[in-house]
Amino acid sequence: MAYIKGPDFPTSGTIMGVSGIREAYETGRGKVIVRAKSDIEEENGRQKIIITELPYMVNKARLIENIADHVKEKKLTGISDLRDESDRDGMRIVIELKKDANAHVILNYLYKHTKVQDTFGIIMLSLVNNEPKVLNLREMLVHYLNFQKQVVTRRTIFELAKAEERAHILEGLLIALDNIDEVVKILRGSKTTDIAKNELMTRFGLSDRQAVAILDMRLRRLTGLERDKIVDEFDELMIQIARLKEILGSEAILLGVIREELIEIRDKYGDERRTRIEKKDDEINYEDLISEEDVVITLTQSGYIKRIQAATYSSQKRGGRGIQAMSTKEDDIVSKVFVTSTHKNLLFFTSKGKVYKLKAYEIPDAGRVSKGTNLVNIIPLDQDEKIQAVISIADMDQDGFLVFCTANGIVKKTGLEDYSNIRKNGLIAINLREGDELLNVKFTRGDADLILVTQDGYSIKFNENEIRTMGRTASGVKGIDLRSGDTCVSFDIAVEGEDLLVVSESGLGKRTPISEYHLQRRGGKGLITYKVSSRTGPVVGARSCSQDDELMLINSDGVAIRISIAEISETSRNTMGVKLMKTSETTKVVSMAKIIAARDEEGPEVEEIDSDETISKGIHDDTDDSDIELDVYDEDDSDEESEE
């Protein structure tokens, strides 16, 4: 590869890495990644990308159209203008960026999703003895060299035959010139040409061709000058014949001739290399160019998803009206919101029991009140398929388990390694029973206490060791024995030392120490954790939390409020709680999410939300940061506990 560096395309460009070239040289098959030449310029505080070279066989007009389509479909944001400034001096595509756009991130997107970077396949297919064969570079060179040997040998044999034939004629002419008087006498004494030819052949031992050449010789050749020319030509031919015989007699000399001819071709037709080769593979790694930061990802019932910086939602006093989290269509509501980091893996679990994987930064960034991007443009969901749970995990190779819970109270535990290779079209995560759907999924280390909460206010807490590890497509076992008409609305890990925060549809919420929920056997009916009434409405969600965490609530109008958990008074299990968010006859709390405070220990940070999806909709724009009077509702109802 020091001599044959790699393909050189007429349209220039840059080959990224040498591994593909090496593979092609070693096996006869390979592929190289060819990237356009681009420069980033800055003007008036804005960046622009200038493309001056394209990969081989990429059509410029179609490329520009393709980039424009990505912008129109909002798959690619940050571009404000796209134009072709090519002229007779060369090609020039200008991509102007918005003020806060990152040119490197946009370039990486173009490399991955357009022909700004293309893959060029290599196959060294040749006809060897009239049979097609794929040759590696060494075999190709050996066959080429052997062919050149044959060509040069045949040419040398041909040239030697011509030189010897010409020398033979010249030798006869020289004999005639040396005996010119006798030759003239024979010609004058012969009645016919044939007689003269035979006489010359007999007298001087000439061949038929030599005798004919003498008879055809013009009188002017008899001059001394012409004789000298014949002598010189004969001497040159003898040198040439000797050289040609040396070539035929020595392979080393033959190879030298081939080398000299190749050098001559190089000097005559060679030009400067156009295609550059980057020695090191430049893998597109978005994470190197995207800062790691906390983000809030919001998903609506109609499937619109967006990403926004978590700092956008400043913490407010409990009881406030909040700020608008996103704009929703008239017939849409926010169904899920979770907090994660831009570099985390997001596992999307659907109502059909499938799982899809994305990086958090692959979710399009949007403004606070924007409705976002339809999820079907990112994940290939079926028409009747919806996202039921999302898990955020930093490292898919770590040891651990995924524990599933369905709306009918079925639980299942499967090793995380079973989900390490998730295809773009998804993977079966759990085999759901008829009439059931997935509620939530949790990552565990293998010995966690789990807690399930129902919409009628019942809960059950048990250790995950009561669930045996099952295969990826198993359906699971009973986690809670539901009462008639009841359904699970929340599934979480019960962390000792933390509290269980329960929120109702009317905006009431309470937190109770996890220690007040004793361990039960899996499959029991559970005990009362929240007294549901017409005033409270059904439970919409429950989470295990610490005082350092924060709570985010979203109502049916798409309005969000962020509250410090420490502001919510700790109460016993038999209370209704305090007012966390104002509601009205037309608005209800539909979603809750815990915002995790910074922890010292390692582990995935996962944020899911649960919601009632039968709510009317609307939009609030107003914000109220005022402190609200605390209302506490206490009831003396005794706990109802199941037999185990």
UniProtKB/TrEMBL annotation:
Source species, domain of life: Bacteria
SMART domains to which the protein is assigned, alphabetical: TOP4c
CC per GO annotation: cytoplasm; DNA topoisomerase type II (double strand cut, ATP-hydrolyzing) complex
The entry's keywords: ATP-binding, Cytoplasm, DNA-binding, Isomerase, Nucleotide-binding, Topoisomerase
GO function terms (MF aspect): ATP binding; DNA binding; DNA negative supercoiling activity
Bias kind Acidic residues: ranges: 602-613, 622-644
Domain Topo IIA-type catalytic: 1-289
Region described as Disordered: spans on this chain: 599-644
Family classification: Belongs to the type II topoisomerase GyrA/ParC subunit family.
Protein name stated in the entry: DNA topoisomerase (ATP-hydrolyzing)
Protein source organism: Youngiibacter fragilis 232.1
